[in-house]
Amino acid sequence: MDKIFKLNKREQLVVQLIMLAWVVVVLVPFGAAVLNSLKPNVGQVFREPFGLPDPVTWSNFAKAWVNANFAQYFLNSAIISVSSVILVTFCASTTAFVLARMPFRGSTLIFLLFLVGVIIPIRLALAPLFDIVRGLGLLDTLLGVILVQSASMMPVAVFILVSFMKNISTELEEAAKMDGALPFTIYARIIFPLMRPAIATIALLTFVQAWNEYFLPLIFLQSESHYPLTLGLQRFNQQFAIQWHMMFAGILIMMGPTIIAFMLASKQFIAGLTQGGVKE
Amino acid sequence: MTPQADSDALATMTPTESRRWLSYTALEKIQRTLLLTPGVLLYGIFNFIPLMALFSLSLVKWPGIGPKEFVGLDNFAKVLTQEYYRDQMLNALVQNVIFFIVIIGSFLIIGTGLALLLSFKTWGRKTYQILFFLPYPMAGAAVAYLLDLFVHPRGPLNAFLMQTGLVDNAIPFLGDPDTALITMAMFYTWHRMGFAIMLILSGILAVRTDLLEASMLDGANRWQSIRNVVLPVLGPAFVLITVIVLVDVFNNADYVLLIMGPEAGPLRSTDIMGTFLFRTAFGGNADTTDTNFGLAAAIGLLTALMILPAAIFLALKNLRSS
To answer: What was the ipTM of the complex prediction?
Structure first.
């Protein structure tokens, strides 16, 4: 075994060089963003893109935050993401609970209808979706975007939770039923606590996806006061395209929360994303 | 869960009420329905019904407002035969395929290479894993603008290339119709490579050690073991990545929309199915009046049909592993 996976000194050196090469590919754009977001003017960015900022200028971030309305965009993104997380974790967990644990006539059909959502991306149905959202009077409201984004996460979330729940033993539940516990109680007291790891994964995925979503807000929001950061950054780009030091600061503000979420939960994040992946 | 925790959970349960207005079974049914309702409504109204409505909407001519005019299969005929739309569709489709091939090619080649190296006893491989994965959770919007600035003719990459004398003149990566699409594909690759590496790596690590040991006992050297034992087992991981990327690039056009706008410049050289669909529904330039929701629904339906085999495979894979 060792002969396969152990590397001698020379091999180790070669492998390290290749690894570092990809690290450079990954990190250099980030590095350029950090360096250049701290420069006082765009001239310095053009002259010396990899030079140290002189003087170090933090005000680009402040300017983006205050003058370019990033505070508002940030708040909107937070409202959309947090609401989506709450909505998806609640709706997907109750749905998955009934589908996995309380089958009835028609529950398989409902499960299959959710399967349709996993198969066909909702973006392809943007015309009918637009029609429905407008018909409900939800066009250009945060509520509309929250509902649409949550619904787009639902099928995958339901699948992950159903498959997770099938691996939980039913003993506790049966004991509770013998005591006369009703579904509400079983869900709240037994199933929800047991599902916590899977729910944490779904919450994280939903948060990152909702925070990063560009296309759905683009279609359903018109007023700038409702823009999330993704649309705000696009707006910012139209205004400050040439002010690169400002652009880099705006991009970093946008990236902040997801970088933090990733750092806090990188293990769970990777596990969640590769879920349903290769299992042989 | 320990037996102690079990009994604790049961102890906190509401005791059976001696008298109920309704029988246990009736109450159970009501509560079950109530638990199911929010999820089904949310998904149904904002995901399932629109998907189903693709069929009916694809049969009408409708600028998105006012009365709908039933035109039968006219929209499909338009996209497939009328020169103006057919050429756009073919252009978008071909470019979408090129876009896909460049991405999946780099994923499989670079991703497999890096995943293999990570599977060895490499120093600092945990750190490498996290660093390689770093771009994945970033927003497409942030990645698009970051890399757009990075490869700009006056941007850091060109400055570096010129300072080191590798090129004499700045390369207009996104400004040239010949390179724009490939550059977009590279953006995607940069963003998602961590995911490909992780998936392939988990496939490699899943190779049973006894298989490897058997190959060692048979006298295979490292490369022979990798080629004959590890790579064949990676089939499922390769198929999975290919399918995920295929479904994604045929419905998601975020990078192009963000950087090039719905006209997918320069000269529509970055037009893919997603931008074509968007442009048909909502118009391209600000002065476009030619919007047609019916036609957009037809294009959406055709795209769905194109990716359906791959998508069904993905869904089955998800189901089976559950």
So the answer is: 0.91
